[in-house]
Amino acid sequence: MNEATTSGEDQVESFDLFAEYQASGVRDILDELDRELIGLKPVKSRIRDIAAFLMVERARKAMGLAQATPTLHMSFTGNPGTGKTTVALKMASLLHRLGYVRKGHLVSVTRDDLVGQYIGHTAPKTKEVLKKAMGGVLFIDEAYYLYRPENERDYGQEAIEILLQVMENNRDDLVVILAGYADRMDRFFESNPGFRSRIAHHIEFPDYTDAELLEIAKHIADEQNYTLSGKAEEAMIEYIALRRQQPHFANARSIRNAFDRARLRQASRVFETAKGPVGREALATLEEADFRASRVFRGGLDSDRTLATSVETRKQT
Known about the structure:
about 325 residues, alpha/beta
């Protein structure tokens, strides 16, 4: 794995970073990020920087130069549907490949998974989640909801205190990623400086451009063996521009929801018009009408907010 020359019982005099980079599988994970995630150039750049830092830290440790495990807790900020959960999954794998977490799994939670509804309920809930996450990455979505100062009887502060203690004392066995809207996360950190001091990496996830969202739509279609007719593609371009102006726009998640609705309309159309055998092209092609039936084209609102609940585990990506 590594062409190193031993200078002592546990230390080496040289470390082949490139060989270790390839053998560890880190290169594969970074390539997957580029291949699977459209856009997000600043995010991918930061992930590569973190990977390079950890590779160098691994070399320093092999040479006896590293004195402590680096703090790896992170903050992912951005609007919904910008790939935060997907990147967290890749980060868990990357940390595992480099030996910074034992298992490399991701446990994704929200306030309801950590905070109880009565006295004595919060501590066991929080500790159970932490137990499941040990050896991997704990992803807390919309982390600011843990703190509700307006409610004197809220138990979120108890969960926060337990999290802070574990983040400090178990940083060699657990990485915590806090995620949410940028402005709300800023206020959360101002109210809870203990979190800010423990977060080593702040990564901002930008909104996708219209062109990137169209590319995402095509990628989703390709994954599921569909094609968009020329007119369907034009309709999708218009849909993206209109939907972006509406409330609760969720970037790639909104596009996936729109695609899923178009599939339903296509299935209905094909079924209702079929008078005999149906060919491959008919089953695989989404037409203009499958998209233009959306309420968005009539000034209405697509129900992404409702649909998002049922597809939470499929966040884009």
